[in-house]
Amino acid sequence: MAARNAVAATEQDIWVILMASLTRRETLSLLGVAVAGSAASVVLQRTAPLGRDVHDNPAAKSILKDTDWPSFGPADADLTVVTFTDYRCPACLYAAPKLDEAVAKDGKVRLVYRDWPIFGAQSEEAARAAIAAHLHGRYVAMHKALMASRVPFTSASIMQIAAGAGIDTQRLSADLQSRSEVIARRLARNRLDAARLRLPGTPGYLIGHLLVVGALQADEFATAFLSARKL
């Protein structure tokens, strides 16, 4: 019971922190996507296989083959999982450690990260910093640090988060300025690919040719991995 209460408190903290910094329009958008993600998770628990087979979607095929994005996983991975997430999305924050747990337990999954900031300026600033970190090979550390953070994202707080993750903040700041057009193009590509997949919001996961929308538990991700391998 104590563990369950701790999880509930963590989820509540995520909501309180995020909601405090949102405008009314952003709040309505956030609630809509979070509810959709929660509902999707409930529905997916009752279906087999999880998600939707997108073998016939040319976008899914090209996205899975695209190697121009930050990734993490073993050289002998037999399954690629492309994640579309936002650092201020409560469902994304909740699902991220569950996904990491499932990936670590599986041992043959390669994660590909696609930043899709849909919750306003703070989301955009965090995503830009993550992509800037990728430009010098530190994406995963920055991504995990941003996902673990519960503070509003400002230029100052993002640099503090980066420093805490062991990232060279001077280089990060320089890349944000000098390579801003590159970063903007990558974000635009992420938005385009999310649209090509017809994702309704974050989080979205292209698990092989299985498209899953919404936050999942670790065991649900494991089931999705199994289902994707059977397609």
From TrEMBL:
Matching PROSITE patterns: THIOREDOXIN_2
Residue ranges occupied by any Thioredoxin domain in the UniProt entry: 33-231
Keyword rRNA processing listed: no
Domain of life, per lineage: Bacteria
InterPro entries named among the record's database cross-references: DSBA-like_thioredoxin_dom, Thioredoxin-like_sf, Thioredoxin_domain
Pfam families, alphabetized: DSBA
UniProtKB keywords: Disulfide bond, Oxidoreductase, Redox-active center, Signal
Protein name per UniProt: DsbA family protein
Organism the protein comes from: Sphingomonas kaistensis
